[in-house]
Design brief:
Elements: E1 3-11, H1 17-27, E2 31-43, E3 46-52, H2 55-68, E4 73-76, H3 82-91, E5 98-100, H4 117-125, E6 131-132, H5 136-143, H6 150-162, E7 167-170, E8 179-186, E9 190-196, H7 206-219, H8 224-240
Parallel strand pairs: 1-2, 1-4, 4-5, 5-6
Antiparallel strand pairs: 2-3, 7-8, 8-9
Length: 259
């Protein structure tokens, strides 16, 4: 059983963040550990409040996991502010895969990363990333490039490689196409991963779920492409079988088995 450390915020509604990460890691056969960066009061309709934890406490949680349990991969999600980004960057192990989900805005539209922290993410975390998994608005924010067309999305992915990431998965979920395509970009390769878009309101936590699923695959020794493909298929089925909870953007079904 491979160990995955998720460093992210907690979602009281259970559909995103730490809660989604742990469910995903477990469903795919991994063992999840956590360092919680913030607690949120939210449901499917939105985020009512965010309480950020002290950066030194986040770093201590990471240290405690590394010193005893150990990790085979790390997933980064909501980091909230520059102080936490700096503390996490200093505490990260250097010898395991790192999947960076650059969480900036919740599905409901709530801002989850302070504006001043984006530069710190670019400088301290993007160059450390084995894989960065931004959605289209996050890709545009990080690179300053347009992402309206296929060519623009690929170019933005290459820009993320230029910023130091070993690979970038530019996700197409925020586009309007009926066939949803994610672009996996490295310095030497390009893979387009396409699946039919499922028309649904139940998309809360999809970014967290995808990144955690990929991190689990990398921890288990899968190749980058195989880890991404399995994660995409897992997420597709989780969306298709979503339980339909709440009146807003509902959670997906993390408890499916795609092995």
């Amino acid at each position: 059983m491979k160990r995955v450390l998720t460093i992210a915020g907690s979602d009281s509604g259970g559909g995103a963040g730490i809660e989604a990460d742990l469910k995903t890691i477990s469903a795919l056969g991994g063992y999840g550990c956590t360092a919680i960066t913030a607690v949120t009061a939210q449901n499917t309709l939105g985020v009512a409040g965010v309480h950020t934890l002290p950066a030194e406490f986040v770093a201590l949680a990471i240290k405690m996991v590394l010193d005893d349990i150990g990790v085979d991969a790390v997933k980064l999600g909501m980091l909230a502010n520059e102080a936490i980004i700096r503390a996490v960057a200093a505490a990260l192990p250097g010898d395991v895969p790192l999947v960076l989900d650059p969480v900036m805005v919740a599905t409901s539209g709530a801002v989850l990363l302070e504006e001043g922290a984006i530069d710190a993410m670019r400088q301290l975390l993007v160059p450390r990333a084995t894989l960065i998994t931004p959605n289209l608005p996050e890709t545009q924010k990080l690179t300053g490039l347009p992402v309206d067309t296929e060519a623009e999305r690929i170019a933005a992915g290459r820009a993320l490689i230029g910023m130091g990431a070993r690979a970038a998965l530019v996700k197409g979920g925020h586009g309007g196409e009926k066939i949803l395509t994610d672009y996996l970009v490295t310095a030497d390769t390009l893979e387009a991963i396409s699946l039919p878009r499922i028309e649904t309101r139940n998309t809360h936590g999809t970014g967290c779920t995808m990144a955690s699923a990929i991190a689990t695959g990398l921890a288990q020794g899968m190749s980058m492409l195989d880890a991404v493909r399995r994660a995409r298929n897992y997420l597709q089925e989780a969306i298709r079988t979503a339980p339909g909870f709440g009146a807003g953007h509902g959670p997906v079904n993390h408890l499916i088995r795609i092995i």
